[in-house]
Amino acid sequence: MKSKKIPILFIACFISPFLIAAIVLRLGWLPDHTVNKGQLVNKETHIQNWQNPNGYLWTMVVVSQSGCDDFCKNQLESVKNVQLALGKKSEHVGVMLLSRNIKTDLAIPIQVVNQDDLISDEIYLVDHMGLVVLSYPFSAQENLNKPVFKGMLSDIKKLLNYARSS
Q1: Which of 20, 24, 96, 154 has its CA 20 to 30 A from that of 52?
Q2: Closest Cα partner for 106 from 85, 76, 84, 78?
Q3: Keywords in UniProt for this one (predicted)?
């Protein structure tokens, strides 16, 4: 009797996870929420001619189609505050302004690109290879931005914790 139960239990241990997974997928029991706070960029978007001279693992990117107006400067200031909030991990995260053409005296790295896939009213999180991963909305009303920046800070901390080279 014992010898017949062992192979059956052995096979059941290997088949049952596949059966459970198939049932979960068919019945739509997957969770709707995600852990990240930003919006995952669905379309694979690489920034053309990406330059990462400081070797940052992640870069918070502000996009400006024309010159950097007051709205753009508010975005940059807020993003710099997020970088400062990272503490000692801030050395792995950079801030960059992307624009078609810009002449400014901002003390921030500027990269001139023609990137039509990126929206000016959003802040993007870009990996060290120039892949746009997450986007965050930015509003002119500061009270709407606080939860966004808390979420951005949370996402960056998680990504840095999972990075092997940091």
Answers
A1: 154
A2: 76
A3: Membrane, Transmembrane, Transmembrane helix
Euclidean distance between CA atoms 56 and 130, whole angstroms? 11
Task: Report the SS3 class of residue 126.
Answer: strand
Tell me the CA distances in angstroms from 8 to 18, 110, 149, one per residue in order: 16, 64, 54
Q: Which residue matches tokens 């010159």?
A: 67
The 8-class DSSP code of residue 103 comes to -
Quickly state the pLDDT bin for 166 (edges 50, 70, 90).
very low
36 backbone dihedrals φ, ψ, rounded to 5°: -75, 150
What tokens does 132 get? 């746009």
Tokens found for residue 118: 């990126």
Its CATH class, for the domain covering 39-162, is: alpha beta
CA dihedral for 80, 165, 42, 46, sign (positive or negative): positive
Closest CA to 123 of 164, 74, 157: 74
Please report where in the chains the tokens 């999180």 appear, as a residue.
Answer: 125
Domain ranges of the chain: 39-162
**pLDDT tens profile 9-32:** 888 899 999 999 999 888 888 777
Beta bridge partners of 93: 58
